[in-house]
Specification:
315 residues, alpha/beta, Rossmann fold, L-2-Hydroxyisocaproate Dehydrogenase, Chain A, domain 2, three-stranded antiparallel β-sheet, binds nicotinamide-adenine-dinucleotide
Length: 315
């Protein structure tokens, strides 16, 4: 990884890609940002627009619309490109079309000589991350997806609000598929060092389990609600991607619930799923093994099975 010039190549300059780019600019996360899209004119327009904001940003980032050859010396290639679901189209058909979009992206990126880290946000993100790994032939540690990073942020926010505690002191994760089978392993949820399940409610009784269930449901359905209200979600995911990027470029060893390949952890193999992992300049340095209860282990196994079955359905 180059230390002197932190370079990111972003493929897909739609709402998600540009929300990410905008937050990179505002936080001066990198020195060079290349925007790539099948719609070149859009990438050019987006580069112009961001460049016109540079003077107000306190950053001297080099931003331009480019080509896949520009990925050769990038530290991270971030993929937010994808096609939207057509009316009447099944989830599997959409998956097949997105798999074909990724074939048109990964091959030229690797041909460019790119030797950094792939970060994937395109949905269904766990499957698209696995496809990226398979097409690139990279070491699995260097291919990660946004996984349940955003879902975990939503959970910490809601728990912080409920318990009236700064979300930064809430340590709880959403794990598994970024989608309907994701879940919260409550046995591992802590406020500072106090397990949430051991907290007392206002009446001196145990914590209100129904409320925790409500919170899980709210996290799981958050994206649907936003999509219903404003058609798509992008700011939150853009900032989650920014957070992962900073963990990589800053060699932070931060724990984030990215989509990582499981290689025996939690008894799972051959699947990418959202799990807490240590992220540094090498990508996923290691998956953190949580002490899940038997029931939570089963929930994770079920979620991984859904992901494996979807992946196999593509071919
Ligand atoms: P969008 O339609 O606004 O943007 C998609 C972009 O991809 C477009 O600019 C399009 O031109 C480009 N594109 C399409 N095919 C391409 C190709 N072959 N090569 C290069 N570029 C290509 O969509 P969006 O709202 O930005 O969403 C992008 C993806 O992010 C979607 O798959 C969406 O579901 C996903 N998403 C993920 C999360 C998450 O938590 N992981 C959250 C929100 C959205």
């Amino acid at each position: 990884m180059r230390k002197d010039n932190r370079k990111i190549a972003l493929v897909g300059t739609g709402m998600v890609g540009m929300s990410y780019a905008y937050s990179l600019l505002n936080q001066s996360v990198c020195d060079e940002l290349v925007l790539i899209d099948i719609d070149k004119k859009k990438a050019e327009g987006e580069a112009m627009d961001l460049n016109h904001g540079l003077a107000f940003s306190g950053s001297n980032m080099k931003i331009y619309a480019g080509e896949y050859e520009d990925c050769g010396d990038a530290d991270i290639v971030v993929i937010c490109a994808g096609v939207a679901q057509k009316e009447g189209e099944t989830r599997l058909d959409l998956l097949k079309r997105n798999a074909s979009v990724f074939r048109s992206i990964i091959q030229p990126v690797t041909t460019s000589g790119f030797n950094g880290i792939f970060l994937v946000a395109t949905n269904p993100v766990d499957i698209m991350t696995r496809i990226t790994w398979q097409l690139s032939g990279f070491n699995p540690g260097r291919v990660l997806g946004t996984g349940t990073t955003l879902d975990t942020a939503r959970l910490r926010y809601l728990l912080g609000d409920y318990f009236r505690i700064d979300p930064r002191n809430v340590h709880a994760y959403v794990i598994g598929e970024h989608g309907d089978s994701e879940f919260v392993p409550w046995s591992q949820a802590m406020l500072a060092t106090k397990p949430v399940l051991e907290l007392k409610g206002g009446d001196g009784q145990g914590v209100n389990k129904e409320k925790l269930q409500e919170i899980t449901e709210e996290v799981r359905t958050a994206a649907y609600k936003i999509i219903e209200a404003k058609k798509s979600t992008y700011y939150g995911i853009g900032m989650a991607m920014n957070r992962i990027t900073r963990a990589i470029l800053g060699d932070e060893n931060s724990v984030l619930t990215v989509s990582a390949m499981l290689r025996g952890e939690y008894g799972q193999r051959d699947v990418f799923a959202g799990v807490p992992a240590i992220i540094n300049k090498n990508g996923v340095s290691r998956v953190l093994p949580l002490s899940l209860s038997k029931e939570e282990e089963k929930q994770l196994a079920d979620s991984c099975k859904i992901l494996r079955d979807s992946y196999e359905g593509i071919f």
